[in-house]
Hints:
Strand content of chain B: over 45%
Largest sheet of chain A: 6 strands, mixed
Radius of gyration of chain B: 13 Å
Structural class of chain A: mainly beta
Mean pLDDT of chain A: 95
Largest interface: A-B, 25 and 22 residues
Strand content of chain A: 35-45%
Radius of gyration of chain A: 13 Å
Shape of chain B: globular
Oligomer: heterodimer
Amino acid sequence: QSALTQPASVSGSPGQSIAISCTGTGSDVGRSNFVSWYQQHPGKAPKLLIFEVNRRPSGISDRFSGSKSGNTASLTISGLQGEDEADYFCTSHTTGNTLILFGGGTKLTVL
Amino acid sequence: VQVVQSGAEVKETGASVKVSCKTSGYNFIAYDIHWVRQAPGQGPQWMGSINPSNGVATFAQKFEGRVTMTRDTAITTANMELRRLEPDDTAIYYCVTSTGFWAFHYWGQGTRVTVSS
């Protein structure tokens, strides 16, 4: 199975909002509410930001929000801060043999 | 919750590697443990998971027949062994605890595995 499709990079200025898309198929993102988003700083392990499409774990800022429409999920980061500069990955449960698919990752640059 | 993995490994092509993952701070048998790897410059890849309460493991098709996942409930540790290593297996291997919803909540620090040809 192919990985989920994310843009390779996005950028924004401090204070702005950006959105990162994650496109799959009707076998994964389109039919699953088990879509998650992760933040990864260089040399660090990923950190869970969003699960079940739009739920935040305890301690995650409400500047991070998730949504889904059809086969595409999105992560929105509002009020960009320098510390948000990182790689972001999406995941989705899938009906295929590989039960979880990852996106290829998106590098966020805060200008 | 803490998840602490074993140290870096360097292996030759054809060898096997075993990565261990010591957990603490929660009921070990309550949550599945997943293994995820990340090759240099690439997105992560799910390898499989184990249910610590019964030891039943599920693997991604790509790794079927080449990976074993086990657990020792007495010492709240999970293990992943990958056999017949190739240079393409060079990656950081993560042990992750999931508290549900197919989301990865608590990550280990990662174990770098380098496979030389």
